[in-house]
Amino acid sequence: MALLSIRNVFKSYFLHGKRIDVLRDVSLDINAGELISMIGASGAGKSTFLHVLGTLDAPAAGEVLFDGKSVFSMNDAEIAEFRNRTIGFVFQSHYLLPEFTALENVAMPALIQRKDRTPSYAYARELLERVGLGSRVDHRPGELSGGEAQRVALARALVLKPAVLLADEPTGNLDPTTGEGIHQLLRDVNRDLGITAVVVTHNETLARSMPRRLRLAGGQVSEA
Ligand SMILES: Nc1ncnc2c1ncn2[C@@H]1O[C@H](COP(=O)(O)OP(=O)(O)OP(=O)(O)O)[C@@H](O)[C@H]1O
């Protein structure tokens, strides 16, 4: 059975009396352990797709299934709990908290979730080492380069050991070499931690380096 599926999903936005149909009857199965890139023109709906897949946004029609169970049939509190437990997010901007160190930023979701300080810090430190930032744990976001800050954001997305990692243009603000480094880390995390990952990118070369490639166009997702 697929780990994550979306079935006949529709999503539209209404703005100033106009309707924009962004996802039109999208169905897709994602198996545990897959590493997938998604490309598509600006405005094609990639972020919308990722938000629905990640349960941040409900579809207008259709279903999102995790392990065969319909996520949006749960109530809002249950969906939020499911999301925190199951899905890690990385966005184009790192959204690190400026007044906290890299270590504190990475540990934050675990501190909030588990109210258990010591193991959280140990694992946060391990993750920072994994992303090559063992020597930057005490730096605040303003004292990190863009690529380093994005690596901290990746470590933070992993701290609750999610089954799924969703990354929305994680390299969009980075130079190509630094961007390639982030993609390499995503490949490492997928391979070593067994995390299923979907990565939206504008970079065709990086997209092609992923084992499975999707394209979003005309409200539809196809294999690319
Ligand atoms: N909250 C919203 N209200 C109204 N329209 C929206 C909203 N969010 C997105 N849209 C529209 O939906 C379409 C898809 O947006 P989305 O952000 O998913 O595209 P994208 O493929 O991620 O684009 P980009 O690559 O530029 O980030 C766009 O035309 C956008 O203008």
UniProtKB/TrEMBL annotation:
SMART domains: AAA
Keyword ATP-binding tagged: yes
Boundaries of every ABC transporter domain copy: 4-224
GO molecular function: ATP binding; ATP hydrolysis activity; transmembrane transporter activity
Pfam families: ABC_tran (PF00005)
Matches recorded under SUPFAM superfamilies: P-loop containing nucleoside triphosphate hydrolases
Cellular component GO terms held in the UniProt record: membrane protein complex; plasma membrane
Family matches, as InterPro entries: AAA+_ATPase, ABC_transporter-like_ATP-bd, ABC_transporter-like_CS, ABC_transpr_LolD-like, MacB-like_ATP-bd, P-loop_NTPase
Annotated keywords: ATP-binding, Nucleotide-binding, Transport
Family (UniProt): Belongs to the ABC transporter superfamily. Macrolide exporter (TC 3.A.1.122) family.
Protein name: ATP-binding cassette domain-containing protein
Native source organism of the sequence: Corallococcus exiguus
